[in-house]
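Hi all, a correction to my earlier message: I attached the wrong file for Nitrogenase molybdenum-iron protein beta chain. Here's the right sequence:
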Amino acid sequence: MPQSVEKILDHGPLFREPEYQEMFARKKACDGAASIDATALQSEYTRGWDYREKNFAREALVINPAKACQPLGAVFAAAGFEKTMSFVHGSQGCAAYFRSHLSRHFKEPCTAVSSSMTEDAAVFGGLNNMIDGLANCYSLYQPKMIAVSTTCMAEVIGDDLHGFIGNAKAKGSVPEDFDVPFAHTPSFVGSHIDGYDNAIRGILEHFWKDNPASAGSSETINIVPGFDGFCVGNNRELGRMLGLMGVSYTFIGDAADQFDTPSDGEYRMYDGGTTIDELKAAKGAKATVALQHWNSRKTLEYAASVGQETASFNYPLGVKATDDLLMKVSALSGKAIPEALRLERGRLVDAMADSQAYLHGKRYAIFGDPDFVKAMARFILETGGEPVHCLSTNGGKEWAEDMQKLFDGSPFGKDCKAYAQKDLWHLRSLLFTEPVDFLIGNSHGKYLERDTGTPLIRLTFPIFDRHHHHRFPVIGYQGGLRVLTTILDKLFDKLDAETNIAGETDISFDLTR
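and the right structure:
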C-alpha cells in the first residue's frame, strides 16, 4: 500500500503511485479513449489558424464561458446588507452552487437558503415552497431582511414573486411589515453581474418606493461597488480614501465584513453590511456613484428616476481611473483631494517608472467581467504594455466599442482587440496563434496556462486555487501598487525560470533586477 496510518499521502503524490496509475490505465482502456498519439495529433491541429477560424465560426456552442449565472450575483448582493439572508427560490442544488462558489473564493461561509423546489413545484408552482421556506428562514435564522432571487426553474414556470411573498405574509410566514425585497434573476439570460444589478435595484425599490425623502436632501454620496471578488480589500480602501477627503458616503451593499469574519471564538452568521436605516436614508443622497458601469445600469437608472445625480466608472484600478473617480467625488461633494492621496498617486507613478524597463512592450491577454477587463487593459497601457487580447463573455457590442476607443487613445493599443461574448476556448485559439507574454484573469485560466504555456496572473473573481488575494485592494493608488507588484513578481519568476540552467542560460540569472 502506498500509504498507512503512519504515512498519510496528499492526493497529489498518492495518485501518482503505481496502484493508482494502473487503475487509471484500466479505466482509460475500458472507456475506449483515443490513443495517446491520436490525442496528440488532434491537440496539435487545434493550435493552428485553420482550427481558429472554425472555432470562431461556431454559433450554437459555448465552451467554458468566463461568467456565472444571475442568481450568484444576487446572493453576493444580499451579503452586503446587515443581517440579510439570501433566499433562492429554486432547487437546493442551485443554492448550494452559489454558496460553494463564494465560499471557495473568500474562504468564508456563505449564508443562503432555498425554497427547495422539486418536480411537483416545477409542475404546480412554488407557492407552498415559498410559504414554508420564508417561515423557516425567519424562525431559524432571525434575519432583519430576506432578499429573494430566482433560478431557472422558478422563471421557466413563471412564478410571481410579488404575489407569492404577499401570500406568504398573509399566511403568517413573516410579519406583514417585515422586509422581503426581491428580484427576478433567470439563470438562462445575462450573467452574475446582471443578477447583482437586478438584486440591488430590487432592494432600493423596496426601501425607496414609498419613502418621502427627496433626492439631494443630504450631502451623502451613495457608492455601488458592483460584483467584486476583491470587495474585502477594495471597500475598505475606498472607505479610507473617502475618509481622507471628508466625504459623507453610504455603500449600497458592503460585503467586506461578511466575507472576512475573524476567528475569535464567536461564529457570526451575519457581520457588517449596510443597515436598513442607511438604505432608507440613501434615497435622500445627493448622488449615486457606481464603481462598475456594466454591473449597475438598472440601479443607476432607478437612482436617476428618483432625482439623484448619477455617475459610473469601470473599476477604478490604476492611475487615471483612480484620478477620474476622486475628481468626480470631489466635484459632487465639494471636498478637496488631500495631499495624502496626491502623495500616494506619486508613489504609484514612481514605482511604475522604476520598473518601466521590464514592463514596456509586454503583451497580455485579459479575460473576465467587462468592467474589470477594461480597467486592467487601461492599467496595462499605462505601464507601456499591450493588452492584445481582451475577452469578456458577458461583455456586449457596446463594451467592445468602448474598448476600441481605449485602444485608439494609446500608442500601445494599435494591435489590441476586444472580444465580446467569446469564451475561454476562443481565448485558447488566440493564445496559440498570437502568443502573449502573460494571461490575466481568474483561476479558470490555469488550464490555458497549462495548455499554452502562458503564465497566469490571478487578479479577479473567482480565485479558488490561491488564498487571501481578496483581502488586499486592487483599486485606488494603493491597490494599483499591489497589482503592479503582482504582475512584476510573475514577470521576474518567468525571467528566472528562463535563465536558471547552469552553464547554458544562467548568464542572465541575475541577483539584481
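Sorry for the mix-up. The domain at 221-335 is CATH 3.40.50.1980 (Rossmann fold).
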